[in-house]
Fold:
Amino acid sequence: MANQIEGVHESAGRPQHWLALEGKVCVVSGAAGGIGSAIAQVLGGVGTRLALLDRDEEKCHVLAQSFGANGVEALAVACDIGDMDSVRGAVERVEATYGAADVLVNNAGLLRPGGIEEIGLEAWNAMLRVNLTGYMLCSQQFGRGMLKKGAGAIVHVASVAAHHPQTYSGAYSPGKAGVAMLSKQLAAEWGPRGIRSNTVCPGMIRTPLSAAFYEHGDIERRRSAMTASRRIGEPTDIADVVAFLASARAAYVNGAEIVVDGGLESMLMDLVPRPGFEATQASREALTQGLAP
Structure:
């Protein structure tokens, strides 16, 4: 019973993790970032063989070494996912070391400020090159090995910005919306050939890149109040969902989008003034104390 509680079950006398990902070759792009490293940590923790892709080669190697020190197989691969030659080189390294990928997590991303009125074509294309074209290139090139095997899972990390425009962020929202549709197209085209493709849409997640936001006044309190769960998400919140979608436990989940935002999208109507429909005094007191109304 204890093993079951910990997410482990017994099979043929050998303990196995509930996700049944042991020995699977898992490729994670943007692995040196906050969400990427958390995804790698969760996948590595259930016995996968990791291929860590990132443009920051030094950080990638440090991460791989830390995994190796803890008995996790991890290969660091310097890769610019927006460059076809770089992606092809990454595929060659991974396949030469481990064989064809079983799982691809498209996670690398780029965010730059800029309103539509003034953004230049170069800045627009630079963001799409990573956030959308890079996802296509990795899916296409790593997917070839999956298609040959007739099995595989691809998980794309998009954003709630795929559903709601993130203003003054250039091509960020259009790119994330494109990722969501790319995933559905892959599911439709490759599903009959044994490949699943799904999307995770994070809300507000505390990462090294966003940490500075929470140093300003009461930003964390105000942002937390915008979620039904009344907290800011952590990278592991995303990583756990990615691991599920990568696993055989999600065998009949294909072409789906899972929003992981603590209920942010469910709070839209709370922004609309509705006289006579405000929270009661008891509800306000409960919320203040951090209790459910």
User: Anything to note?
Assistant: The CA atoms of residues 115 and 168 lie 4 Å apart. The chain has one domain: 20-288. The longest strand covers residues 195-202.
